[in-house]
């Protein structure tokens, strides 16, 4: 007897809580997962762009500040005959899911007569491909970012058109870099030429956004009650969860159990961060406000919630600001007391170059954690990483020179089978192939047709 598929939009509900589900076998009509994309799959899954197994494609962009120690970043060899350089060694478990791209340029981040301010231009242009109007006042002007182009086209398919996350609080006013507004330095996602998209830095706030209901009052009551009674979000949807489990086969029940366990584990980590916030701090130090004190724990917690958002199909578009460009964060946990920005101006000093490489390696370690999480989650015959495209990079190459060509750019995932990964694609750095050509290629694989984006000259045929 045939079983009626469960809707991909099934949500477990309770007082002020809504838990969207990951893709289960019971959600896909028989034959669709292994039979390619049929119209039935499009209708059932509500897809804008789909992988070869009928699952949506996601995109995310991670931005890092201050450039890299390029000698430790750039791979030796190209094509499929390449080796991971020291900075990228943490990515060994996902090497075959990576495309390292060398030689791309971000022309809009150059001065073009505006003088100093490379950090502001690097962040502002990274996802927009637009040159910022130099001002420290309210008359900011830039351009829409590629994530928002995608969100405008496919955002109606999900509850959240896009998700903006970061580890540095954003600013919208003031002079943050040689006459450039703080809005340029602090934001990588832009809704329009004059409106940046604010990013969320508080893990608890992100969690509430992912699991809150559309009823604001009920969602607030839920949050207050959860904190007061130390309950899990899963306690509020337990009745729906039990009913659903009764309709599932063993494989799907195991998936549901693992999924709920991952939610509870994140809740416990958020609760631990809250408890840290309640502890007294030394005079002159800021309270973490629910943010883990350890940078690595903080970044992993935030990336875990991006994984959940993609897994539950709450959004298919995300951005992640690791730090604002020009950040002078210290990494004392790595034995480094000088600020990141100061170190990036290494002047060829071997000690500073070694410290910069250590910071770069540390950031890559956290990114590797995120990618391995994506790779561990099955979606039909593929993984969540297979069905994603994730950019990780900077708008500056060498922080000492502030160059905006030959940028350090990674592309992880296979875009639902449309990307040929496991390679180093090396362009001639002197030809300055636009970074926006990569974004044009990604938009196409998201089902978003665009003739141009930023200063693009055409999609990168080398990715297929």
Shape: globular
The largest sheet is:
7 strands, mixed
Question: Topology as H/E string?
Answer: EEHHEHEEHHEEEHHHHHHEHHEEEEEEH
- Average of the residue pLDDT scores: 90
CATH level 3 topology of the domain at 58-201 and 315-463: Alkaline Phosphatase, subunit A
First and last CA, distance = 42 Å
How many runs of DSSP E, i.e. beta strands? 15
Helical stretch tally: 14
Helix coverage percent = 25-40%
Structural class: alpha/beta
Radius of gyration: 22 Å
Strand order of the largest sheet: 6-9-3-12-13-4-14
Uncertain runs are 31-47, 281-287
Named at the architecture level, the CATH assignment of the domain at 58-201 and 315-463 is 3-Layer(aba) Sandwich
Tell me what you see in this structure.
With 464 residues, the protein is of the alpha/beta class. It is built from 14 helices and 15 strands. It has helices at residues 32-35, 39-45, 70-73, 118-126, 146-154, 182-186, 203-211, 216-229, 238-245, 250-278, 295-311, 340-344, 350-376, 435-445, and strands at residues 11-14, 17-20, 58-63, 98-102, 104-105, 163-166, 175-177, 180-181, 317-321, 378-379, 382-383, 388-393, 409-412, 423-426, 433-434. The protein is globular. The model is unreliable at 31-47 and 281-287 (pLDDT under 50).
